[in-house]
Specification:
single chain; alpha/beta; 14% strand
Length: 424
């Protein structure tokens, strides 16, 4: 192994996992490592602009249209086209949204496997770090040490004492759990078995249970603040928890001084594509006495901000969060962990995947309020905001948790563990 370590990061083709890996990569790069990101072609240049090398690949054939793809364009369109499913109960989303997502992910893993093998041979990494929900046989079969990061709600790491993943069901209320698990198994077992056979064909072990990804025999990390994590019926074994993993935002977004309380609205790069939902929230928040910062997303030109608002298509969230008093968000894992990292209460409006689990966790721990994303009345949103902003005890709890998280940054801990793996 050369003195200069080469670390390859392979995140999901979405901003959440990518930003999580960026934070760790920044620490490793400062320490002298060569850091290479394996990214889909639509992300070309975005990691290079942050000082990293890029190795490009595709998860499906290139579009025939001449228009340039924006980062994560496929998933933005996929979410837009399946958005009617988000109004359904989570058990009904399993067939209409969750299974199609797994199918797309599996198809992508099949399509890209050969290219990934080429990249690993060209780059010759000391460690491969992947933050994906689906497995890629080329990673496991590369013969190189690899680490897995789970930057989703930790219920993804299954335990009989935890509610089913993607359900958003309360902990301790077991009535509907088995029905949900059985429905998930019935729908997903054929696809999982087919993908497991593909993994074996490509030199990886079979997939365990009903999972679509392997655990790493080298290093397994998951991302969630200790104060929000679940009590389990059995130990997590080799898994290591990162309390938070907040990247450096670079040039900050400076908010002008204002005596009003400041709210931050973000539904993520995918959820913000629902223009009707975003506009409903904007219109409600426009009636409040607070200042509102809006991450407007890819459909920003179609949104009309109120007089008490400022916003842009994309905002450097780690620069914004320290300056606000409350977060209104979709419940994506990065936004939840970053909000807690900076000690901010949340109103959570979940749409899909583990957002339901995060929303329920914030609700039952009293760290925020979960609302019916499409069914809530404007007064429910403004009432939740007023209740959270007026809760002095919650403010103290969150401030204490924030101090603990910032004293032990997950970016540094992860970088330490990855360096140790590279050396060993």
């Amino acid at each position: 192994m050369s003195e200069r370590q080469t670390i390859v990061f392979f995140p999901e083709g979405a901003y959440g996992p990518t930003n999580n890996c960026v934070g760790i990569g920044q620490v490793l790069k400062r320490r002298g490592a060569r850091v290479v990101f394996v990214v889909e072609e639509s992300f070309a240049g975005t990691l290079e602009a942050q000082g990293f090398e890029e190795a490009l690949m595709r998860l499906k054939p290139a579009p025939t249209a001449s228009a340039l793809e924006s980062p994560g364009q496929f998933w933005k369109e996929f979410v837009r086209d399946t958005a009617p499913e988000f109004r359904k109960p989570t058990i009904e989303q399993l067939e209409g949204f969750v299974l199609p997502v797994w199918q797309e992910l599996v198809d992508g893993a099949r399509y890209v496997d050969g290219r990934l093998g080429e990249i690993f041979e060209e780059v010759r990494p000391d460690v491969i770090v992947q933050d994906n929900v689906v497995g890629f046989p080329a990673v496991v079969a590369s013969g190189r040490p690899w680490a897995r990061i789970v930057s989703c709600n930790p219920s993804e790491l299954k335990d009989p004492a935890l509610p089913p993943t993607f359900s958003g069901y309360p902990t301790g209320d077991f009535v509907r759990w088995e029905e949900f698990r059985a429905r998930y198994r019935d729908l997903h077992a054929p696809l999982q078995q087919e993908f497991s056979e593909f993994c074996v064909e490509r030199g990886a072990p079979p997939l365990p249970g009903i999972e679509f990804i392997h655990e790493s025999p080298y290093l397994d990390l998951y991302l969630y603040p200790p104060d929000a994590d679940y009590e389990r019926s059995r130990p997590l074994g080799p898994w290591r928890r990162l309390g938070s993993c907040v990247r450096e935002a670079g040039a900050g977004y400076v908010l002008p001084a204002d005596e009003r309380r400041t709210l931050y609205l973000s539904l993520g790069s995918l959820g913000s594509a629902d223009v009707a939902l975003m506009q409903k929230l904007i219109d409600t928040l426009g009636t409040t006495e607070h200042r509102v910062v809006v991450s407007m997303g890819p459909q920003h030109e179609e949104l009309r901000l109120a007089d008490n608002m400022v916003g842009e298509e994309f905002l450097p969230q780690p620069s914004i969060l320290p300056e606000v008093d409350l977060v209104i968000a979709h419940g994506g894992n990065n936004t939840v962990t970053e909000s807690l990292h900076f000690g901010k209460p949340m109103v959570v409006l979940p749409l899909f995947w583990d957002q339901h689990d995060n929303a329920q966790r914030m609700q039952e721990l009293g760290l925020g309020r979960r609302l019916d994303t499409y069914g809530h009345e404007p007064g429910e949103l403004t009432g939740a905001i007023d209740e959270l902003l007026g809760d002095a005890e919650l403010t103290r709890r969150l401030a204490a948790s924030s101090r603990r998280l910032q004293a032990e940054p997950g970016t540094v801990e992860a970088a330490d563990l990855i360096e140790r793996l590279a050396k060993s």
